[in-house]
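Case study 2.
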Amino acid sequence: MADAVASGVLELYRRLPDEVRRCLRPLNLLDEGASFLSAPARAVATTGTEMVRRLLQLRQARYVIRRLEGRDAQGGRPLVCLLALDDPSARYWSRTLFATPPAERTMGEVGALGVRQAAERLAPLADLSLWQLPWPLSRLAGGQPLVPSSVPLWLDTGRPFEAIVTGGRSGRSSRKDDARRVRRLGLSVRLGACARDLERFRCELYEPYGAQRFGDLFMRVPRHVFRHASRAGWLLMLEDRRRTVAGALLERWGRDVRILAFGVETDGPLATGLLLEACYFHAIRFAVDAGVPRLSLGTVRPVLTDGVLRYKRKWGGVLGAPHTWEAFLLRYRNTAAVRGALGATPLILDRGRRGLAGLMGAGSPDVSAQLAGLDTPGLSEIVCLTAAAGPVDARPASLVPTPAVWPPEAAVNASAALAPEALPVRHLLGRPPAADAELAPRPAHGD
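Prediction:
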């Protein structure tokens, strides 16, 4: 009898819509209720439930430790990296740091609570390593070099619209040129007014465009987040002769407004790049007309050469303080391979109260020319790793000659890998952790 009742309840549960089933969990139900609050109250409530969720998951969080060996992304020198990250982050960094897909070996896995101890012990086995620290561990790592998982870009929209779109450099692909092309396109704008508009935007514009643009690196915004944002913001639908071809979802968050998602038609007669320009143009104009003092253009990867960062910078965005749930602990040596990797992919470091810093590698003796190619508004300092000290004009960057590293806390402990204590690492297949002597025969590369 009890089995029949349980089976009937389970069958009834399975028939419920996905969003209803989601709300049967207490924290999800609180999020759903918070979405009806004012923007400041909603931000506080939603952040609070996410904190509880993260604390409950902290002991179960585990990261695979991957050893990658290949060629750096700039000079093609042999490079060894250790990544203790979730799968999407590992995919991104393995493609970013290396010129071609590296050889990968799994060393085991480590729990979130043991990440810092594992980093001190295993970092000497690589030229560069990144170790994921979820909240609140990332907030408790005072003084440690942290790479944020993402960085926001903010635009001052307290100015006249024309001052924004006509500012900056001139020429092809400038924001002036983009604005001229968007005006010539002549799209009309209407506000999405119903759940059908939101679902069409998500399924027909946002997800196809994101999948086409980013492939398996595309991080989809969940359906319920779209629904919550629409209650506290605006859905802009861009139309060409009454056919919706693009859109942008703007969300009130706390006392600010941010762009949560863009979407464009991927199989129509209009180029996706042109439609994306129209999304930025009309989202910024809407924010100015609505009296929004500043607008978040969204977040970008913590790499100064990231294409999305450069595109948002074109519209006047400035790097802001990151407020992420994940950060990556950095350990490295100042070697030729690392300088090559950081020359191609300069990192953004979160220095807490000291602001954001850029860490790059000198790819050539002409460091000033390399710096000129970086657009770095919002950074408090830039540091460049070099092969040797010398009379090089690297302003505004500070030079750090080998073997020194910056910040000093990012240096690896050269003797740690030979220490006799057991590593806080569990093998994926359930076997005991490998002895240090088995992990250390392949040294990292010297300069």
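Residues 416-424, 427-444 have pLDDT under 50 and may be disordered.
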